[in-house]
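To fix ideas, we close by showing one paired sequence and structure record:
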Amino acid sequence: MFEIGVLGASERYQSGTFKVQKRYSHGYNFVVSYVYIREKLQNFANSLDEYNNKLTWQDSDQPHHRFNIAATYELPFGKNKAFFSSVNRLTDALIGGWQITGLSTYMSGDYPRFNNLNSGAAPIHSPVTILGNPCQSDPTPESWFNTSMVPLALNSSAIVPYNVQFGCLEGPSFWNVDATLMKSFNITERIHSQLKVTAYNAFNRLNRGDPNMDPSDPNYGRNLFQGAPAGTFGAQTATPSNVTGRQLEIGLKIVF
């Protein structure tokens, strides 16, 4: 048997949502949404507080901002469209029936933690000593924060801080665009077809993961690898699904 969470701890969660939507008409539709969240949780600040069962309010490490845009647009070419509506059947088969859809997702960075310990669990990172504020005004993948401010703990028997984070130390943001180009056409009066090409991470953007938070690792303080920097968002802890380079998918559907 084991305990999940901290007995008697509380949580405060606030969020605000903004949404604009246009229903499908005139060949296009779109929806734009923005969510802002703030969350606080009670936890043990250090090993001594855990021994005394003393809880402290702490900011969540989740990102604060999420922005989505989704849209569909039918290209206005071909029969019964705004342009080239009187073309012959062959030309209409080439230029008509095209549709573009897209989904863009942006999330601000989460808040990496030092010595990320959970009550009753083994440490995920090596114990650290907090000497000062590690934030840098110009973080780079090679040096995301000042590692000299948070070195390894010199004395393993000292009071170990838990889940230490700084409001100014934010992980990389996440931005991704998925897009689909689709062509609908009739093979016969009864047989219809649909050709679709989908690009995941269409702009081939490198979304970096959080910096390495283990001071015993040679890559401590660096974020050199692809990942999901905003790993959780909201009470449902949604995770970005696409953390790879550009991927193409081609499909053909026949309806009869």
Observations:
- The chain has two helices and eight strands.
- Strands lie at 11-25, 28-43, 56-59, 65-74, 98-107, 174-186, 192-200, 247-255.
